[in-house]
Specification:
This protein has 75 residues and is α+β, with helices and mostly antiparallel strands. It is 19% helix and 33% strand. The chain has helices spanning 13-19, 29-35; strands spanning 2-6, 11-12, 38-40, 43-44, 51-52, 57-60, 63-69. It is globular and about 35 Å long. The mean pLDDT is 93.
Length: 75
């Protein structure tokens, strides 16, 4: 399991896949989502811009990625 802490309201699926090193660049995400089952909260995700919020779980090839709220405030 991998955690991705965010300090914003949400991040996109594309950002989460890049931050977790599942994909190397944003340009890869469209074909990646067509070829690989990416599951968000139990449902297959096909939109790279899908918004992910703290508590959301992304599963890719057995890797679980959990979006969490960052403890740090950037104000």
């Amino acid at each position: 399991m991998m955690e991705i802490p965010i300090h914003t309201e949400f991040i996109t699926l594309q950002q989460a896949l890049k931050l977790s090193d599942v994909i190397a660049s944003g340009g890869m995400v469209k074909s990646f989502l067509q070829d690989v089952n990416v599951i968000v909260n139990g449902s297959r995700a096909k939109e790279r811009g899908k918004k992910l919020y703290p508590g959301d779980v992304v599963t890719v090839d057995g890797l679980q990625i959990v979006i969490t709220r960052s403890d740090h405030d950037n104000n």
